[in-house]
Each structure stands twice: as C-alpha cells, then as structure tokens.
Amino acid sequence: MAGLVRxxxxxxxxxxxxxxxxxKQGLYKTAIAMLRNDAxxxxxxQDAVLNSYENLQSLKKPQFxxxxxxxxxxxxxxxxxxxxxxxxxxxxxxxxxxxAPDTSGRAFIELLSKLEEQYRIVLYLFYVxxxxxxxxxxxxxxxxxxxxxxxxxxxxxxxxxxxxENQISCC
Length: 171
Known about the structure:
Arc Repressor Mutant, subunit A; elongated; Rna Polymerase Sigma Factor, Chain: A; 8 helices; 0% strand; single chain; mainly alpha
C-alpha cells in the first residue's frame, strides 16, 4: 500500500483510485456505523475521498494511509452528526449490506448498532477494521487510555446487551 501512496503522491491518478478501492468497504462500514444512514454515509465518504485527494501531499508516512483517511472520514461523519443534531429517525435506519452470508458477523453489527456511539465506534474500529489501540487513539484523537477504557466498557455493555437479547441469565 505504501508504494501506491507514493505513486499517488507523485501524481498517478490510477494509484489513488486503487488506494480508495482497497479501503472503500472499510470506509463504508465506518461511516454507516457512525451515521446509520446510507445517504449521509455516501456524502461523508465522498467528502473524505475528495479531501484526501486534495491533501495527499500532506501525508508524511505512506504506511498510515488507511488510518489517515479513516480519520478524515470520522471528522466528516462528526460534522454531519453535528449538523443534524445527532437525530436519526427510526424509519431511516437502513439494513446493512453484507458481502458474505456471515450470520454471526451480522448479529455482531446489529448488536453493535444498539450501543452508544462512543463505544460503538471504538469496538467497530478494533474488532471489524482491526486497528490497534494506538491507531484508534490516533484516528479518534484521544488518549490511548481513553480508548482502552471505552473498549472495556463497550465490551461490558455489549455483553449485557447480548445476554439480554438472547435471554441468557448470568450466574
């Protein structure tokens, strides 16, 4: 990926298209996890791609392209959430599209969408996008200990939600 980034920075438009193609699914899933609306997710992704294209020269470490563009996307999603007042009508909650019939993954995403945003985004970036705690800290611009705390609390909230949804009693 670092080679593609360097080529794109040198002006190779096809290399930039290849970069975006390689991370478009992750960008979509991140946007939909935050915004819960296809139209807003598409707007956020479009703005993030345009912003990254215009500012590609400012990326100093090509190996962090995915982290960098994800940060841009999250900032864009936050702008949209702020603009709309963080209100999503129930009838606008889309069904997520999945490329594989992985029912365990679908159940995870559905349960994840019921968590508070601060936990949802950290759990999503950690478990689905497989970013490290350090990378999540950089993407969300927060202290690593805050990321660890949100992961821990998010796991606890997820566990409680899972148990309640599946009517499992503890102890």
